[in-house]
């Protein structure tokens, strides 16, 4: 990827971050083009070139996916959820939702498959029982908003193999070394903005990150503040173990299907975070952190 493309991507990242932080606001072409530093005409073309979507389509999909995430696990009023994400009326939300997801918000709330059991769901959920070995793998932490230089890519993988994500981390490490910022205390982490229970893995947005509390101005890398503040349940897994993906999903099924319920927690609509740690023996451990909140049950 040439330098011009990286610069364009960085400017569009500024817009995407602003959009996430102000998703319920009036996100006009004029406002967002100003943030990107382009004229409205050029911004619209560059945005489509970088994201593959028009600005209107991108904002609408972000709003719909956020609404869908809350519909999965909250008993709240559907209209209120729609208003929280910038829809002007329940009728416009219902039309857009059905066109995008192929069903009404009410049908989605009742019949969408999910891992976490809720009383209002009308589909059977696999029963998960207490497992003393798995239980001790989970810890509760509270994270602040995370600040980092980062590179965003689209697409996750069920087998944990995505060349784009690998290249993003290679670029992060190259930048850290060339700028003399790589130390034994450098925190490397990944942020997943979307839940695979709502979106296809191929469309989930992922960021390879190096933590930085202070703003860093770089020609090609973006600096973002991720809205991660709150409670997380985490489990640490050795990346080098055999059948890593199977091991990971087994832990996630237990976390959603039993642990959260038993500890009076429910999933929260915030980014997922994974922290990387290299051990003295060379193995890399990943501490997976899932956003939660206190359950009303």
TrEMBL record:
InterPro entries: GyrI-like (IPR029442), Homeodomain-like_sf (IPR009057), HTH_AraC (IPR018060), MarA-like (IPR050959), Reg_factor_effector_dom_sf (IPR011256), Tscrpt_reg_AraC-type_HTH (IPR020449). Pfam families: GyrI-like, HTH_18. PANTHER family: RIGHT ORIGIN-BINDING PROTEIN (PTHR47504:SF5). Keywords: DNA-binding, Transcription, Transcription regulation. Residues 13-111 form the HTH araC/xylS-type domain. SMART domains: HTH_ARAC. GO terms for molecular function: DNA-binding transcription factor activity; sequence-specific DNA binding. This is Transcriptional regulator, AraC family.
């Amino acid at each position: 990827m040439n330098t011009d493309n990286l610069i364009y991507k960085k400017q569009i990242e500024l817009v995407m971050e602003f959009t996430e932080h102000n998703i319920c606001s009036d996100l006009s072409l004029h406002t967002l083009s100003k943030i990107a530093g382009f004229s409205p005409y050029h911004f619209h073309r560059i945005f489509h070139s970088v994201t593959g979507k028009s600005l209107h389509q991108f904002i609408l999909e972000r709003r719909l996916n956020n609404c869908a995430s809350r519909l999965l696990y909250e008993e709240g009023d559907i209209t209120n959820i729609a208003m929280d994400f910038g829809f002007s009326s329940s009728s416009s939300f219902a039309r857009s939702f059905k066109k995008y997801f192929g069903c009404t918000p009410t049908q989605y709330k009742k019949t969408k498959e999910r891992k976490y059991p809720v009383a209002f769901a009308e589909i059977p959920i696999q029963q998960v029982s207490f497992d003393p070995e798995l239980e001790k793998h989970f810890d509760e932490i509270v994270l602040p908003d995370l600040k980092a230089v980062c590179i965003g890519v689209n697409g996750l993988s069920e087998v944990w193999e995505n060349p784009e994500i690998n290249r993003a981390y290679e670029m992060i490490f190259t930048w850290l070394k060339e700028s003399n910022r790589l130390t034994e205390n450098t925190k490397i982490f990944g942020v997943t903005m979307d839940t695979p229970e709502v979106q296809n893995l191929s469309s989930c947005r992922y960021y390879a990150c190096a933590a930085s509390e202070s703003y860093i101005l770089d020609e090609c890398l973006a600096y973002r503040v991720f809205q991660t503040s709150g409670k997380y349940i985490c489990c640490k897994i050795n990346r080098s173990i055999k059948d890593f993906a199977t091991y990971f999903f087994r832990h996630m099924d237990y976390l959603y299907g039993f642990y959260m319920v038993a500890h009076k927690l429910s999933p929260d609509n915030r980014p997922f975070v994974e922290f990387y740690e290299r051990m003295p023996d060379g193995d890399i451990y990943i501490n997976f952190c899932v956003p939660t909140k206190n359950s009303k049950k």
